[in-house]
């Protein structure tokens, strides 16, 4: 896909990987709309020349607000990037309301946005849906069962709609990042990929009409998993 002149919507596009994707798409000539829920970050995105829409996608009301804001708008690229982690330790008290919000944000919201915005994408000569999952969609870690479950669910959803949309004008891309240095991973130690590097590989996948963007160390994880799923799971469960 030639990104020049395209209109892109990036959810969770006011910080982290999403903001880096939005910046790069804009740099390559796209008109970019981002959504988020924090006023200061929305203002910063606007100052960079991005169009910003306030929407909290952890609720049905937030999804409706975003879809309503997109009514009558051209759309070529939908990047379902918004996501979050949540604590879930069976040895401690669990905030199930927070769990529900996370499941909605990570899985329900991209499913709903895809369903509601695909008619807009079908109207364009060439379009793309990019679902940002995770290397943890391939093999889970014990420390993040809900996050891993939602990303695995989004991975399955992505594969299924890709088959449904085969032969159409819409390319369906799954982006699988490794651990990236963002606010969500601030408490984690160890090696982290820079969000700019992650975004660059995702945008390259859009340009190449690739079905998957296996980012950074996820390439190695995919290789190990192809040879021995049990080994990949044994490695990642303790990650």
**CATH architecture descriptor name:** 3-Layer(aba) Sandwich
The side-by-side strand order for the widest beta sheet comes to: 3-2-1-4-5-6-7
Number of domains: 1
Distance between the termini: 36 Å
Give the CA-based shape: globular
What report would you give on this structure?
With 239 residues, the chain is α/β, with parallel strands linked by helices. It has one domain (7-236): NAD(P)-binding Rossmann-like Domain (Rossmann fold), CATH 3.40.50.720. 46% of the residues lie in helices and 15% in strands. Strands 3-2-1-4-5-6-7 form a seven-stranded parallel beta sheet, sandwiched between helices. The mean pLDDT is 95.
Sum up the structure in keywords.
239 residues; alpha/beta; Rossmann fold; 8 helices; 46% helix; globular
């Amino acid at each position: 896909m030639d990104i020049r002149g395209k209109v892109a919507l990036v959810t969770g596009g006011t910080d982290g990987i999403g903001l880096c994707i939005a910046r790069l798409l804009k740099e390559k000539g796209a008109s970019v709309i981002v959504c988020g829920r924090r006023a200061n970050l929305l203002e910063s995105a606007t100052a960079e020349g991005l169009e910003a829409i306030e929407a909290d996608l952890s609720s049905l009301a937030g999804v409706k607000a975003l879809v309503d804001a997109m009514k009558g708008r051209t759309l070529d690229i939908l990047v379902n990037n918004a996501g979050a982690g949540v604590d879930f330790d069976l040895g401690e008290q669990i905030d199930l309301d927070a769990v529900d919000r996370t499941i909605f944000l990570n899985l329900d919201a991209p499913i709903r946005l895809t369903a509601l915005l695909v008619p807009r994408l079908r109207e364009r000569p060439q379009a793309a849906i990019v679902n940002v999952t995770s290397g943890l969609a391939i093999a889970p870690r014990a420390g993040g069962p809900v996050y891993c479950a939602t990303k695995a669910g989004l991975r399955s959803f992505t594969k299924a709609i890709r088959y449904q949309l085969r032969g159409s004008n819409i390319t369906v891309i799954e982006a699988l990042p490794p651990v990236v240095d963002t606010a969500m991973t601030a408490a984690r130690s160890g090696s982290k990929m820079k969000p700019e590097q992650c975004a660059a590989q995702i945008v390259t996948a859009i340009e190449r009409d690739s079905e998957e963007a296996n980012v950074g160390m996820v390439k190695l994880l995919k290789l190990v998993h192809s040879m021995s799923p049990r080994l990949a799971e044994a490695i990642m469960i303790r990650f």
